[in-house]
Amino acid sequence: MHQYKGILCMPDTTPDILEWIENDVQFEDGDVLLCGYPCSGEARCDVGIRVQVRPGVMWVSVFR
User: Fold this and answer.
1) Could you tell me the superkingdom of the organism this chain comes from (predicted)?
2) Residue 50: how many other CB atoms lie within 10 Å
3) Which of 18, 19, 46, 49 could connect to 36 by a Cys-Cys bridge, CB 3.0–4.6 Å?
């Protein structure tokens, strides 16, 4: 079993929340961010975003 420290955002993550995470949250090596971000337009198609943080680098995986 793997244990991660990070943030889990609710399904209705807004651009303001993502901006707050990007600008104000201090991630450490190995932290993970999981959040759902609705597609633009009226149709709801939540997309999961997984961010693995390493010093100086962020990997972003998008999945449905």
Assistant:
1) Eukaryota
2) 14
3) 46
Residue 12 tokens, joined? 């209705």
What ranges do the domains of the chain cover? 6-63
Distance CA(43)–CA(13), nearest Å, equals 15
Phi-psi map region of 30: left, alpha, beta (phi>0 left; psi -120 to 50 alpha): left
Alpha helices in 1-64 (DSSP H): 15-24
Token pair, residue 3, equals 């244990």
The CB density around residue 47, as the number of other CB atoms within 10 Å, is 13
pLDDT in tens, 14-64: 777 777 777 887 777 777 666 655 555 444 445 555 555 555 555 555 544
Rg of the chain over CA atoms, in angstroms?
A: 12
